[in-house]
Amino acid sequence: MDPMVEPSKMKKMQELLDSSRRELPRIRQDAEKAHRSLRLPKDRYVDFSSAIDGIIKLNAYRGMPIGWARGKTDDNIEFKELRQKEVENYGIATTYLEHLRNAAHRQGMTGSSLLAVESGMKILASIRSQEDNLYRARRDWGRQIVAATKSALDLGAANQIEDVARTGGLNAEIYLTHMAKREFRSLNMAQKAVIAAHFGTGLCDEYAYYTMTEANKKLPGTQITIMSYGGHAGVIIGPPNHPESAHLDAWTTSATVSRSENYGIKEIQEKSIIYQVVGDGKDLRKEVASTLASFPKRPAHKRPAVSIEKAMEIVRKKGLESSYNVLYITRAAEGHNSDSDPEDRSSRGHTLSTEALNATAANNFQADSTALASVAARDAPGTERTPHTRRSSQSSGALGRLAGAVSRSVADRIPRPRTQGAR
């Protein structure tokens, strides 16, 4: 196994990548100058100019503050179109520079103009590989951070029905008794992470807070962000909405680290920042460990696992279902990632992605070999992923209610009422 890339080196990798991106206007200018000197046909240069301008504009959009796209429909449409054409634009620009260099050699061009074209070729070719290498470095750290979060919150999420079943309802009871209270909600992020680890459970907010504090400790010099995805909280290490950044979500039953396009939340520019910081290497949880004095000890006893149906009965009696509307099964499905990295591409898609949800639907939302033994076919969503409304007259018992809950669209499957500080 390759050694982890040191955070200080990742910081330098980001600086080099940003520097390479800033060279794009100069590359365009040098290519135009060489094109005129060589008196080449105009049509190929027009295509090159359009392609590299698209890359420059896309980078400018990505560098804007999170939330810029709300209310700016035309700009948002252009941003999405540029992102879809990104790979094509890089190909057009790279091919043209190669054509320009070959023409320069044929015509005997020497000196600074040729050197500028060749330098531009190297920089343009390096940007995508720089993005991939930096993403992989962050992904490896992200996997370690997610594993630490899952280990600390060992009872699992209080609104993940599989985790409720695995703990016999203990995590849901702990959450409602000690964490769904005003005293807990008034705490800061690090304090909530401490309490979540103490009790071993939480919702997506608490998983994000613990993940953030763990990333802050391990990744000094790295930008770390807690994002609100329409009510769901997740963590990004690296600049949000950039391909070199990694998205971490320890809340899901089979937690994963992925790029934004594999995460299933592509329009990050429309979302909100809950918290953002550049990691400083401090142990934020240790600094507020005294918070534990205000909370009781975690229950020492364990409970035997129960069935999914029994877990649904428990949470209805405890009031968790009515408080949070819907419970989730987010085990990774067999939908594969569309990623440049072979390891990511062959791995299973993130459980909140459209691909993963479709794959799960095809398996009747089977969370594992025993859960959800049968789900009414009418509750399984079609390929159009239209929102599904639960109808008790058509869905019988706990399984029917669960099926209706899980078969919502991706947007409707994200928990809404809990994210503190989201706008």
In summary, what is this structure?
Helix content is 52%, strand content 7%. The chain is an alpha+beta fold and 423 residues long.
Which structural traits does this protein have?
single chain; two-stranded parallel ribbon; elongated; 5-stranded antiparallel sheet; alpha+beta; disordered C terminus
What would your notes on this structure say?
The chain has a 5-stranded antiparallel sheet. A two-stranded parallel sheet has the order 1-2. It starts with 6 loop residues before the first helix and ends in a 17-residue tail after the last helix. It has a domain at 7-133. The protein is an alpha+beta fold and 423 residues long. It has helices at 7-22, 24-38, 42-62, 73-84, 86-106, 112-152, 161-166, 170-179, 182-185, 189-199, 204-218, 260-263, 284-287, 308-318, 320-324, 342-346, 354-362, 397-406, and strands at 156-157, 201-202, 223-229, 232-237, 246-249, 256-258, 272-278. The model is unreliable at 322-326, 331-336 and 353-423 (pLDDT under 50). Strand 3 and strand 4 form a beta hairpin. Helix 2 (24-38) packs antiparallel against helix 3.
Percentage of β-strand residues: 5-15%
> Helical stretch count?
18
Strand order of the largest sheet: 6-5-4-3-7
Class from helix and strand fractions:
alpha+beta
Biggest sheet, open or closed, and with what strands and sense? 5 strands, antiparallel
How far do the termini sit from each other?
42 Å
Kindly state the percentage of residues in helix. Answer: 40-55%
